[in-house]
Amino acid sequence: MPIDPSVAIGAELPEVEFSWTASDVLLYHLGLGAGADPEDPRELRYVYERDLQVLPTFGVVAPTFGATEPPRVSFPGVDIDLASVLHGEQGITVHQPLPVAGSARARIRIADIHDKGKAAVIVQESEAVDGAGNPLFTTRSSIFARGEGGFGGHRGPSGSTTLPDRDPDAELLSPTLPQQALLYRLCGDRNPLHADPDFAAAAGFPRPILHGLCSYGVVCKALVDGLLKGDTARVAGFSARFAGVVYPGETLRTRVWESDDRILLTTSVVERDDAPVLADAVLTIH
Questions:
Q1: For 206-227, what is each residue's pLDDT tens digit?
Q2: pLDDT at 157
Q3: The whole model's pTM is what?
Q4: SS3 label, residue 223
Q5: In terms of CB atoms within 10 Å, which end of the chain has fewer, N or C?
């Protein structure tokens, strides 16, 4: 049985120790398209080691940064074909600004599994602490496994974020590069869905798609640059549901509504009549 919720839910995965350098941070930012204007001082804070700052979304990829093998969806009580899996949701809460270089350890557990009938949603939570044991960041993610539902579990929450009944306060455009996925995969996600046309076709896509976490990082950077004066330290957290795919080379349109210490947003693809990309998305501000 690919999913056994009685075994999976609550299972603790092996603790992960990881470290990163300024070069890793620079590569991550370049993978998001930073440095498009190499003479802009704000862009240089992402792609040049002098005055380098770290986007908080780097914490999501830091534990597996530099991995060279495709990920495996194999945990206690879970064994699923990678081709059936899509990223469902992602969130990070930042407890302190991420250092340019450092080391940490993360405890990971399977928090829940939802039965959506034709699919399953597997929810993971991770808590990372720095070398001194101080909380660094907490992440919560879910993966959507097609064809793996129907095991008799609960459906999970169905709530969504309510947007203000007014025009957005701002609209941000973020172009992506045709080779964006090939660059971003060097950050540690070697899923062939993002590079191999034959694998993408077998998974039901006309061509390789951009990593969901790449779109997630691109949008976070757009919000920092467009609304937070380029200061990554002001981000307390960022969560979003992946509502659709992006093909490398497309342009992301992010509409934002500011509300006290939160920014509510939606992201869509300009070239495909605003096909949804991110939904139920919230960026919290220190």
A1: 999 999 999 999 999 999 999 9
A2: 79
A3: 0.93
A4: helix
A5: N
User: Which DSSP category does 2 fall into?
Assistant: -
Q: pLDDT by residue (tens digit) across 49-108? A: 999 999 999 999 999 998 888 777 888 888 888 778 888 999 999 999 999 999 999 999
> Hunting for tokens 């951009």 — which residue is that?
210
Rg, Å, the chain Cα set: 18
φ/ψ of 105, rounded to 5, equals -135, 150
Domain 5-285 top-level CATH class: alpha beta
Active-site pick, 194, 211, 225, 280: 194
d(CA 191, CA 131): 30
CB-based contact 45:51 (threshold 8 Å) = yes
Residue 198 CB partners (closer than 8 Å, separation 6+): none
Does the annotation mark 194 as catalytic?
A: yes
Residue 226 falls in which region: left (phi positive, over 0), alpha (psi -120 to 50) or beta: alpha
DSSP secondary structure letters along 69-92: S---EEETTEEE-GGGEEEEEEEE
Higher per-residue pLDDT: 157 or 105: 105
Contact (Cβ atoms closer than 8 angstroms) between residue 215 and residue 174: no
In the block, residue with structure tokens 């599994």: 113
Asked if pLDDT for residue 194 goes beyond 80, the answer is yes
Tell me: pLDDT of 1 over 70: no
Token pair 């957290």: residue: 237
Q: Which one is catalytic: 24, 112, 115, 189?
A: 189
